[in-house]
Design goal:
The protein is built from three helices and no strands. By secondary structure, it is mainly α. Helix 1 runs antiparallel to helix 2. The longest helix has 15 residues, at 39-53. It starts with 6 loop residues before the first helix and ends with a helix.
């Protein structure tokens, strides 16, 4: 599965994963909750992404499904970027 996110995104997502090897590739279909991203981590990660990209997550995007995989979360971030 191809990814088109940048280094900033990958760095922020990796930092939020408490149970994922730092040298393993960040696959688009990686189940984030299975690697340590809990609800508190989702809130923190969304705030860091908003700050890094100058975006604001819509209320409807702050749901577990948006944080299921890196690809799901990137779709939210890239959608916010497109709507700025």
């Amino acid at each position: 599965m191809a990814t088109n996110w940048d280094e900033t995104y990958e760095k922020l997502v990796r930092a939020a994963l408490t149970d994922y090897p730092p040298t393993a590739p960040l696959r688009a279909d990686l189940p984030l909750p299975a690697h340590g991203l809990d609800s508190l981590g989702m809130v923190g990660l969304s705030a860091r992404l908003e700050d890094a990209y100058g975006i604001e997550f819509p209320d409807g995007a702050l749901v577990p499904a948006s944080f299921a995989t890196p690809a799901d979360l990137w779709r939210v971030v890239s959608g916010c970027l497109a709507n700025r």
